[in-house]
């Protein structure tokens, strides 16, 4: 990958912060946007803005064509069998809430169980907890090792006739662990249990083929994959989406409405109440084409090199502990330095132009499992460089010296 050229594609990377060149290492929270994505948003508002699906006029049809073409780009990106399996949402969080709500309403009764893992983001915990008080389902939590790997051997002991769905993250946003989702799906399916994969931290790093994976649902956010905010994707196998009731009601999701009886639209529109983000879908499609053109395997290789290098450099620092040492890791490093609160580390790195995330990373139960309250997290994207890793390592050393 030609990193000099790639970095030029991202205008924000050339800005300064506190008088220092920006070193953006908060990609797990959101990625920066290439110019083609930014331009697409302007182009759409400048040339093709009209509400979709219900207009007979030229602009509405043009906007509809682009919106639906974008759905097909997403379909191809994850290799879904049909565009009907791609539901646009506001993000990963909304997509999981949709499944939690519709799935539990249709398939769960009191004391049925949903299995998640101990390393889930709050957005794959709380939507299920909300269902605990509505449909009476119970959450079961697959434990993890001290290294941050799922204890796969425990899965079969937890599965019972009450298990209705397994919902796990592909990549941990805190530990970087790449979970063995192929194996989890295989085990779950041997008991006829569907699986939801939270791909919020994987789709931008690892090539995903939902047919090969055979997952039943997969969700991700556009903004973490170089696309715009407020946009997300729910993939669901058609056989499941057909059976699930709508999540929200309103325009676009109906076939016909009367006060006596309302019928619902076909897939995927049944799950897309209200005006969709037809500008966001085009910008997301542009982002996915951008990373596809670079090549997902090239991106993975580059980010893996960054991870290896950053792990080496940070490990040289006295009293620095890395949380998450799984064998199979994505480009995320969480760490804590003895005697330096992660918040202080974050603020003092920021003064040097280095953007990292500090805190519990929306994974409080995981923090409790690790016996800590917070970490500093550096998360790398395709445009990061080894020089930036050096700046991070030097910056951390400088902060340690100050303490
Ligand atoms: N799942 C994981 C693993 C995440 O890292 C995040 C965000 O950090 C989410 C879900 C939620 O994503 P969003 O806030 O875009 O809905």
Write up this protein.
This protein is of the alpha/beta class and 403 residues long. The chain has 2 domains: 3-32 and 295-402, Aspartate Aminotransferase, domain 1; 38-293, Aspartate Aminotransferase, domain 2 (3-Layer(aba) Sandwich), CATH 3.40.640. It contains 14 helices and 17 strands. The strands form 5 sheets. The chain has a 7-stranded mixed sheet, with helices on both faces. It has a 4-stranded antiparallel sheet with strand order 13-14-17-16, with helices on one face. The model has no long low-confidence stretch (mean pLDDT 98).
Summed up:
The chain is an alpha/beta fold and 403 residues long. Helix content is 39%, strand content 16%. The longest helix has 21 residues, at 58-78.
Spatial arrangement of strands, main beta sheet = 4-10-9-8-7-5-6
Quaternary status: single chain
The CATH topology of the largest domain is given as: Aspartate Aminotransferase, domain 2
How many domains? Answer: 2
Distance between the termini: 39 Å
Bound heterogens, unique:
pyridoxal-5'-phosphate
How large is the radius of gyration?
22 Å
Q: Name the CATH homologous superfamily of the largest domain.
A: Type I PLP-dependent aspartate aminotransferase-like (Major domain)
Total beta strand runs: 17
What is the typical, i.e. mean, pLDDT?
98
Q: How much of the sequence is in beta strands?
A: 15-25%
**What structural class do you assign from the helix and strand content?**
alpha/beta
Number of helices: 14
**What fraction, in percent, of the residue positions are helical?**
25-40%
CATH architecture label of the largest domain: 3-Layer(aba) Sandwich
Uncertain residue segments: none
Top-tier CATH class of the largest domain: Alpha Beta
- Main β sheet profile: 7 strands, mixed
The dominant shape is: globular
